Amino acid sequence: MSLSSCGSSSICSLSSGILVANDPSSKLSKRRFTPSISQPGWKQRRDSSDNNRGVSKVFGYYGLKSPPYKLDALEPYMSQRTLEVHWGLHHRGYVEALNKQLEKNDSLYGCTMDELIKVLYNNGNPFPEFNDAAQVWNHDFFWESMQPGGGDMPTLGLLQQIEKDFGSFTNFKEKFTEAALTLFGSGWVWLVLKREAKCLAIIKTSNSINPLVWNDIPITSLDMWEHAYYLDYRNDKAKYVNTFMNHLVSWNAAAVRMVRAQAFVNLGEPKIPVA
Amino acid sequence: MVANAVTGIAASLKCALFPCQGFQGSTRRLQWRKNERQCARKAGHGVITAKFDLKPPPYQLDALEPHMSHETFEYHWGKHHRAYVDNLNKQIAGTELDGMTLEDIVFVTYNKGDLLPPFNNAAQVWNHDFFWESMKPGGGGKPSGELLDLINRDFGSFEEFVEEFKRAATTQFGSGWAWLVYKANRLDVGNAVNPRPSDEDKKLLVVKSPNAVNPLVWDYFPLLTVDVWEVTITNFILFIPLNYDL
User: Fold this and answer.
1) Does B195 contact A at CB distance below 8 Å?
2) What is the pTM of this model?
3) Are the beta carbons of A226 and B174 separated by less than 8 Å?
4) Which of A38, A65, A158, B67 is the most exposed place for a label (fewest CB within 10 A)?
């Protein structure tokens, strides 16, 4: 099966992005291709106009990935109703809109979700599909940034890095909360590892923008679109943000992402022993 | 004749915030006002402080039931709109924006796109005032007279206008507003002709704007608006029975 030809992939995508088209000129095309993964959304179609009889064109679609916990698992901090509406309606809506838009455009097939977002962002002049693609990725990332029994503090290396870049964990919490409360309109707040600066930073973005477009590595995120908190907290944004920091944020997930990120960013001086 | 229609509509809106003279030379008027204030100070008069008040909608809070509930108003007007007003007052206290009219603050803080901090609050106060006045109990239906003629002329038919308005409202990504506006073709100077007229001049248009931006800053005359921030939609969903035909 031919893999993505979109160039080097940056980070393993956490999303449901599935692979796609096959290359008719490759040797594999003589064999009938049957996908072994039974994911919703794989479709197979025989193209009778093709020279090689029996060649199937595979179209991959992005599927709606469920959060790694049941919809009522985050009660009482994020209600089941919120998850049902936020994931079941909004997130699902973005996935379906993205699939519909991708149907029309063959050249976008074959990309992982990360690559798709960068390509569609088009250096600041985004294509129409960008909003939906980015929102699918953002929400996948967000569900994984939370866990039942979350909150508390990070440990080990991640805590050390936070203390190095923000002074203390309390200071980081304050800065994160401040960023969330000063964001106007819809958007997201992110803890990222900056590649160039080689340090952690808090950034806030509008609408569907995410730090992948600036080639930074997100570690955790908070959805500040009103649909994320309005059902549970109405206009009390501060309570929502504090609840997220104290009870929902998954430092386990953040630690895993941090470990992966360190494969791409060198955070320390190498310890070369002097003989 | 069209200009008369606009002022006619403006007057009939009974919107105290919508100046009937329009915005011709608004920057000139702004300077005039500044001079006036300076003169007042020199003469030793009392210091002018302006404080915006939260203006109530021109109907009772439960007057729009069952379409928009009493609780929606309590949140949307009573909390969100009030917060914008309070924050705006805090931001302008003691600055040169103190004493200016709301539209002038919106225009000045828009700063040709490079927003100054009070813009979001000022524009949202104006937008919400305009939004409450864009609705009324027993509203809906069709307009009549000049407005209907203009709508038919510029959109083809009333139904097409409704479709376009709905489309603008539902395709605004993130937070924002959808507007029916009148776009005039004019310059600041009284007797000159605009050398760069476009097809869309002297017409009614449907436009959409993100976050707090409103068409005043593009020099249009807003006629109608609908709030498509998620707060409005969520309040709508929260407080209306789920089988209501949205």
Assistant:
1) no
2) 0.75
3) no
4) A38
